[in-house]
Amino acid sequence: MWMISGISAGLLLGFYDFWTKKAMIGNTVIPVVFWSSLFGFLLWIPAFIPVWSSGILPEDLLRTDIHQQTLIFVRSLSMTLSWVLAFFAMRELPMSFTGAVRASGPIWTLIGGAILLQEYLSVLQISFVLVSVLAYYVLSQVGKSEGISVFRSKPMLVMTFATLLSSLTTVYDKYIIHDLGLSIYSVQAYSSLFRLVISVAFLCLAITLKRDISVQWSPWIPLVGLSWVIAEYIYFFAVESADANSTYLSVFRRMSLIVGFILSVFYFKERNILLKSLVVGSIILSTIALIFGYK
Q1: What are the extents of the domains in the chain?
Q2: Among 24, 70, 204, 216, which one has the highest count of C-beta atoms within 10 angstroms of its own C-beta?
Q3: What pLDDT, in 10s, does the model give residues 160-171?
Q4: What is the largest CA-CA distance in the chain?
C-alpha cells in the first residue's frame, strides 16, 4: 500500500507541476508562492479548531511541543525555499527539462538515506535508480538542439538546488516520523502554517526591496497550493509505513515527470517528442523494476 500511495502522490504532483507552469506565466515568483501557500493552508484550518478537528483527525494537534514544532519549521523552510527556486526554474524552462532535473532526485535521497537512515539498496536496485539519473544526461544532450545549454543555464542550476532540497526533505520526513515519532497529521498541518508564515516574510522582504508583487490572477494559482497539500497528504501515508524506503519514495514522487511531459506535449508545444518519450519510458521501466525488485 505504501508503494501505491507513493506512486499516486507522484502522479498528482505531475498536475501540480503543470499548474505551476501555467501559474507562473506573466508572474514573479514570490507572490505565487504566497498565494499557493495561503490556499494550501486553508485546507488545514479545521485542524487548528478543536471543535472541528475532533471529528477529522485522530489526535489533538495542539499537543505538539515547541521542539517538535521547531523540527517541522525546518522542514517547512526547506520546502518553501524549494518552491521559490523551482517556481523560478519552471517559469524559464520547458517542463521536460525541469522534470528531468527532478528525476535526478533519487540519487540525492539514496545518499541521504544511506547516511542518515542506514537504508541500503542492492547493486541491482541502485542500477535502476541510476537509470533516472542517466535520463537527465540524455535530456541535456537534447537540450543543445533547443538552445538550452543545460550545464551553463542558471534556471537549470536553480532547479538542481530545488531538487536537492526536496530530496533531502524526503529523508528528513522519514526521520522525524519514524525515528522521532512525530504525527503525520501534525507535520502536515504545521508545515502548511509555517509555509504561509515564511512566504509572508518573503513577500514583506520583496515589498521592502520594491520588487513587483502584482499577480495576473488565474485559477492555476489556487490549484498549485491545493494539489500540493492533497499530494502531500497521500504521500505521508506512504512515509508512515514501517516498510517505506526513502529512495523508493523519491523515485515514486518523480513519476510526476510522466504526467507533466504528457500535458506539456499538448499545451506547451514540446519539441523532440520521440526522444524525450524514450527518456520518460526509461524512467517508467526503471520504476517498475524497482517495485518488483523490492525486498
Answers
A1: 2-292
A2: 24
A3: 888 888 888 888
A4: 58
Please name which of 35, 57, 42, 4 lies closest in space to residue 202, comparing C-alpha atoms: 35
Q: Of the candidates 22, 270, 266, which has an alpha carbon nearest to the alpha carbon of residue 146?
A: 270
- pLDDT tens string 6-41: 888 888 888 888 899 899 988 999 999 999 999 999
Decide if 143 contacts 152 (C-beta within 8 A): no
Cell of 39: 490556499
The angle formed by the CA atoms of residues 271, 273 and 274, to the nearest 5 degrees, is 140
Task: Note whether 196 and 206 are within 8 A (CB).
Answer: no
Find all residues with CB under 8 Å of 95, minimum gap 6, and list them. Answer: 17, 18, 21, 260, 261, 263, 264, 268, 270
Instruction: Give the orientation angle of helix 66-92 with respect to helix 154-174, to 10 degrees.
Output: 150
